[in-house]
Design goal:
The protein is mainly alpha-helical. It is 70% helix and 0% strand.
């Protein structure tokens, strides 16, 4: 029904319905953003934003970017040193205004990234609607995850437009902020001028590594990268031992009641599956294949990260949206997407929070439908009929 609601071919004798217009999707996204900013103002819930804006102050004062500062906020920062530079324009504003512009920045950046996808307008509209449950989580938590998703999409769309310099920038910036962006290196295989692309990657890596040194000493910045590594290791250990791991690795550990299964085993198997489509070099130039790889790139790092949170799935939901608009199997679409959206809303946590927190499997189950979508994406990308299906899809579009 959702598919019919959003993708039914418009009657040329009638004007496009307002809900089929990307401007209406943008209106909804901005409305959601403003609602949760106002909610934060009303409840004085600024914690995550305070963590972020405090990193710029700590950079200027050369205080640890990863220590706990209970006088300012709960928890600690886990983003790379370059993030303290990215947040600077917002940190210079009063917190209530900074939070407003921070959330709007993430909202607009992701929306703009979606508009760069090589898809028809109706498919972009559909992706916009599919993303809404996870957008709510992201805006509620004041996180950078929407921005991280945008950088991953732009990593592909810029290389697709033969703008390797900007694709490399997005990959490197995303990696230096959150590590997830490193999977964008998969798009190297789609670069028309690979040696030049590698040079851009090296250049941006040097620039972004050094950029915080405009505000602090080289020794402090270098030590900050070491501290960042240690903070991520510590967070991983805490999530695995404390039952807060909602990745697919945490799901299977809880399901099998085997908390000792190592991340290395999961990551090895996951990486091998992730690389399977790249054996089909003849498909590298096919648009549908490339979009399936983009979908996989956005699903894989969240599924296999012990640091994943419910608000992190705004990254994965974009991969789901891309899969959905390119999926030809109607049965798959009718089953997988509704189940995924229902579980994404995490009703056990919303309705029975005490029970859900006491039974980590109910928290980790959020990753399972994303995992099924990822396996389906890998299956599509590795099938011999991919090229034929792409041609069939083009003919169908012409007939419609």
């Amino acid at each position: 029904m959702l598919n019919h609601f959003l993708t039914s071919a418009p009657d040329t004798s009638q004007r496009t319905k307002f809900y089929q217009d990307n401007r209406f999707v943008l209106f909804l996204w901005v409305l959601i953003t403003l609602i949760f900013v106002i909610d934060s103002w009303a409840t004085h819930r600024y914690n995550n934003y305070l963590i972020f804006e405090n990193t710029f102050r700590n950079l200027l004062q050369e205080k640890s970017l990863y220590a706990w500062y209970p006088a300012y906020h709960e928890d600690a920062n886990h983003y790379g040193p370059i993030f303290s530079v990215l947040i600077a324009p917002f940190a210079l504003l009063p917190n209530w205004i900074g939070l407003l512009f921070w959330n709007l920045f993430n909202c607009f950046l992701l929306f703009k990234a979606v508009q760069t996808l090589p898809l028809s307008e109706d498919k972009k509209v559909m992706i916009g609607y599919i993303a809404i449950p996870c957008l709510i989580e992201s805006m509620l938590n004041q996180q950078f995850n929407a921005g991280a998703a945008a950088l991953m999409i732009l990593s592909y769309t810029q290389i697709n437009k033969d703008k390797g310099i900007w694709s490399a920038f997005c990959i490197v910036l995303g990696t230096f902020i959150k590590l997830y962006g490193i999977v964008g290196l998969a798009f190297f295989f789609f670069a028309r001028r690979k040696p030049v692309f590698v040079l851009w990657l090296i250049m941006w890596s040097i620039v972004i590594f050094l950029l915080p040194m405009l505000f602090a000493s080289p020794d402090f910045v270098a030590q900050s990268y070491i501290d960042w590594k240690n903070s991520l290791i510590g967070k991983n250990m805490l999530n695995v031992s404390g039952g807060g791991d909602i990745s697919i690795m945490g799901f299977f550990r809880q399901l099998l009641n085997q908390p000792g299964i190592s991340n290395f085993l999961f990551l090895t198997i996951g990486s091998l599956v992730f690389m399977l489509p790249f054996s089909r070099t003849v498909s590298f130039s096919k648009a549908r294949f490339q979009l399936m790889i983009l979908s996989s790139v956005m699903l894989f790092p969240v599924l296999f990260s012990t640091g994943a949170e419910d608000c992190t799935f705004i990254i994965s939901i974009m991969g789901v949206g891309i899969w959905y608009v390119k999926e030809n199997n109607k049965v798959m679409k009718k089953i997988l997407l509704p189940v995924l959206l229902i579980i994404t809303c995490n009703f056990p946590l919303l309705l029975f929070p005490s029970f859900a927190k006491a039974h980590p499997l109910w928290l980790a189950i959020i990753s399972f439908p994303y995992f099924l979508v990822w396996l389906r994406v890998i299956n599509i990308a590795t099938r011999d009929r991919l090229a034929h299906e792409e041609e069939t899809e083009k003919l169908t579009a012409l007939v419609d």
